[in-house]
Amino acid sequence: MTCRVERLPVAGLTALAVAGFVTILTEALPAGLLPQIGGSLGVSEAMAGQWISIYALGSLLAAIPLTAATRSWRRRPLLLSAIVGFAIANLVTALTASFIVAMAARFVGGVSAGLLWALLAGYAVRMAPSHLAGRAMAIAMAGTPLALSIGIPAGTFIGNLAGWRLTFGLLSVSALLLAGWIVAKVPDFAGEPETQRPSLAQVFAVPGVRPVLAATLCYVLAHNLLYTYIAPLLTGHGMADRIDMSFWPSGAPHLSVSA
After folding, report:
1. Which molecular function GO terms apply here (predicted)?
2. What's this model's pTM, rounded to 2 decimal places?
3. On the chain, which terminus has fewer CB atoms closer than 10 Å, C or N?
4. What is the DSSP letter of 71?
5. Model pLDDT for residues 40-83, shown as the tens digit of each residue
6. Contact 173/49 with Cβ under 8 angstroms?
7. Is 75 in contact with 123 (CB distance < 8 Å)?
């Protein structure tokens, strides 16, 4: 009797993790390069920080409407659309000399992020056997902590060494390579059938949902307020040469002691 062993599609799930990695890196990388970006485009560091705000706004405005509008679309073309959106947004960001054009590109990147986050977890679950769904989701979502703990410090180091434009150019190339990886290793799935589902107002009225959303909003807002402007903060304390180090998990003690 032959026993069939079901395994996780690690290559495909890793591609999803890299997609999350690229998403977070595209969003937060300006935080480590604000002085460079502001000086290059002729704006203040406070204005340069709006790159992250406009990205978040794109995600906020796009996530729910795009998820609803594309619910019945096939999954892989939709995923590839988000990845190509990152490639275009980062390429325009790397090449433009206009702050306004760069802001528009960042908004497009945020829209792509809103679409991707709506896809990622469900995609991972559909790729795996049902009893391994939790592990599949854990692999697919690993890109977020890796981007924050490794990607941002490395990107900041490269940006300080070779210029912020090169860093965003490399992100664009990475997104294009990722698109090829997805075509090769990530299966396609049909969209979801139209079914009766609760409205947003009904979901919002579920007991416990509003306090959780409020706590999440406060946490993310507080985190981003500090994270976005960490480079000017460190520069003001004479630590401009340690900006990349501050993003490493071991960087926090250095910040508290030196400040």
Report:
1. transmembrane transporter activity
2. 0.82
3. N
4. T
5. 999 988 898 899 889 988 988 888 888 888 888 899 999 999 99
6. no
7. yes
